[in-house]
């Protein structure tokens, strides 16, 4: 059965004249048609179209899209029993696990807004995010429960849903984990008897009956916290509409993906918008398998690449450096990877060269930021001679970008002159939660002011020359 939520081009006349569209890979349209759907409709579509396709691989245990979807419905109904209603905030404090996928889509189906939280947060850091977002429910691992329970004090959090990482492991590994890890760390059920604490498995006792949570595309799906210019965490309000748009833009760019057949490594954390959108949600959009890594452990990642043969790999320079500098990398076959992306920091030329030699792939660079859900630019993936080293590439389909003067932010700079990079497109945030002044500084007349200093050449390739705010660089690699 063909998927309903797919990349569909539309009349390209408004954007076809942009210089950068001439550099697009074959098959990448200048503009797309965006369906009137919510973010969780991606899982509905995948489960209906490819029910038996593998959705997650976790310590070699596999779950199908039908299985994940049914469990997400159980979680959605379980949240309703706990009193979660449309618009409520559900915070997720989990590593990359099947439980994250289930909780994420289940909470969206219940009408909630997701607040992803970094599992490395201290109790005060987590407290601030829970308090600012107004989260009423928190989903976490048993090992994080002491921090989560301390952080919820003085917030609106009524329920803490607790899971154990071993619950999704194969039976034998589950037993070994219990004996070797839990006995040592003592975190089997630290929440028993605590007010408002409930086991993840008990929430899943609810029926898998679908229902309409009342969510529409313009509702906020995600409160994604970002430092921005001041270093003070702000909640970027990302709508269902914005996230679906960026996922479809990414899917249009990666023309090598195949519905129901592709697979990717999920090393980048889902609590970050890049890992959540371009790794997890993009995989769901094309019913691809997610090889879940709860944390970066080098040999396990290398073994999983060789064993499961992923085509996509998303990481950060620290990960690539660890791979190329370890003799373990020579023991494993990593050449299944078709496209490989790097974000969070610049990737050194030497790191790039060595990783290319190891995997047979080539590198292109891109750019994005949380406020744009997140990707806005990328070098062409497949086009020979179209990559420009040192540039962030060209704008995605339907993204407009220009360089403006730093004084007024209204005068467009000439080709080659530096200024602030500003963006317009269907994936922009609605603003910062409860921060109207910051919102007014960042969103002006429909344009997102990135705070990054950049230039653009005659072909429409942009390059960052300085930065005044935090932004996410994305680097992509594709096989020759």
Q: What are its keywords?
A:
single chain, 480 residues, Rossmann fold, 14 helices
Task: Provide an overview of this structure.
- The protein is α/β, with parallel strands linked by helices.
- The chain has a domain at 64-216: 3-Layer(aba) Sandwich (Rossmann fold).
- The protein is built from 14 helices and 23 strands.
- A 10-stranded mixed beta sheet has the order 2-1-11-10-12-13-23-14-15-16, with helices on both faces. Strands 4-3-5-6-7 form a 5-stranded parallel beta sheet, with helices on both faces.
- Helix 3 (65-81) packs across helix 4, helix 5 packs across helix 6 (145-151) and helix 9 packs across helix 10.
- The radius of gyration is 22 Å and the shape is globular.
Please outline what is shown here.
This protein is α/β, with parallel strands linked by helices. The chain has helices at residues 13-16, 41-49, 65-81, 98-109, 123-133, 145-151, 171-185, 200-203, 240-253, 273-285, 298-308, 317-324, 349-359, 436-442, and strands at residues 54-58, 61-64, 89-93, 113-116, 137-141, 159-163, 197-199, 220-226, 234-239, 263-266, 289-292, 312-315, 339-343, 361-368, 375-378, 394-395, 400-404, 419-424, 431-432, 443-444, 447-456, 462-467, 472-479.
Sequence-ordered SSE layout with sheet pairings:
Elements (H helix, E strand, L loop, with lengths): L12 H4 L24 H9 L4 E5 L2 E4 H17 L7 E5 L4 H12 L3 E4 L6 H11 L3 E5 L3 H7 L7 E5 L7 H15 L11 E3 H4 L16 E7 L7 E6 H14 L9 E4 L6 H13 L3 E4 L5 H11 L3 E4 L1 H8 L14 E5 L5 H11 L1 E8 L6 E4 L15 E2 L4 E5 L14 E6 L6 E2 L3 H7 E2 L2 E10 L5 E6 L4 E8 L1
Helix pairs in contact: 2-3, 3-4, 5-6, 9-10, 12-13
């Amino acid at each position: 059965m063909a998927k309903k939520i797919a990349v569909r081009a539309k009349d390209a006349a408004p954007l076809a004249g942009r210089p950068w569209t001439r550099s697009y890979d074959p098959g990448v349209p200048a503009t797309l048609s965006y369906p009137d759907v919510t973010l969780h409709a991606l899982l509905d579509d995948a489960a209906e179209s490819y029910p038996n396709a593998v959705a997650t691989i976790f310590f070699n245990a596999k779950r199908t899209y039908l299985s994940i979807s049914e469990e997400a419905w159980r979680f959605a109904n379980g949240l309703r029993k706990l009193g979660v209603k449309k618009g409520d905030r559900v915070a997720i404090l989990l590593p990359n696990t099947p439980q994250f996928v289930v909780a994420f889509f289940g909470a969206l189906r219940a009408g909630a807004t997701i607040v992803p939280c970094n599992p490395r947060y201290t109790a005060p850091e987590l407290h601030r995010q829970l308090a600012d977002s107004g989260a009423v429910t928190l989903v976490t691992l048993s090992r994080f429960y002491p921090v989560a329970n301390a952080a919820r004090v003085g917030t609106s959090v009524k329920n803490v849903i607790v899971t154990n990482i071993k619950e999704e492991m194969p039976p034998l590994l589950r037993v070994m984990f219990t004996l070797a890890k839990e006995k040592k760390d003592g975190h089997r059920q630290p929440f028993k008897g605590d007010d408002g604490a409930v086991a993840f498995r008990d929430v899943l006792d609810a029926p898998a009956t679908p229902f309409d949570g009342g969510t529409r595309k313009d509702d906020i799906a995600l409160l994604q916290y970002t430092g921005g210019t001041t270093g003070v965490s702000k909640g970027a309000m990302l709508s269902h509409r914005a996230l679906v748009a960026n996922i479809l833009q990414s899917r249009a760019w990666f023309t090598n993906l195949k519905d129901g057949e592709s697979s990717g490594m999920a090393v980048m954390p889902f609590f970050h918008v890049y890992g959540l959108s371009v790794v997890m949600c993009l995989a769901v959009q094309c019913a691809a398998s997610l090889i879940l890594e709860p944390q970066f452990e080098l040999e396990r990642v290398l073994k999983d690449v060789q064993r499961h043969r992923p085509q996509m790999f998303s990481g950060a320079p620290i990960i690539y450096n660890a791979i190329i500098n370890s003799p373990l990398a020579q023991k494993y076959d990593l050449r299944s990877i078709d496209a490989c992306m790097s974000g969070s920091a610049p990737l050194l030329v030497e790191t790039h060269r060595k990783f290319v030699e190891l995997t047979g792939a080539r590198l292109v660079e891109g750019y994005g930021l949380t406020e744009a859900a997140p990707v806005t630019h990328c070098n062409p993936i497949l086009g020979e001679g179209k990559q420009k080293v040192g540039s962030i590439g060209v704008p995605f389909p339907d993204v407009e970008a220009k360089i403006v003067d730093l004084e007024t932010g209204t005068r467009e700079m000439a080709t080659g002159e530096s200024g602030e990079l500003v963006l317009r497109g269907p994936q922009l945030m609605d603003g910062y939660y409860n921060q109207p002044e910051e919102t007014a500084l960042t969103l002006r007349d429909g344009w997102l002011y990135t705070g990054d200093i950049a230039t653009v050449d005659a072909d429409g390739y942009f390059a960052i020359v300085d930065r005044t705010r935090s932004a996410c660089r994305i680097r992509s690699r594709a096989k020759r």
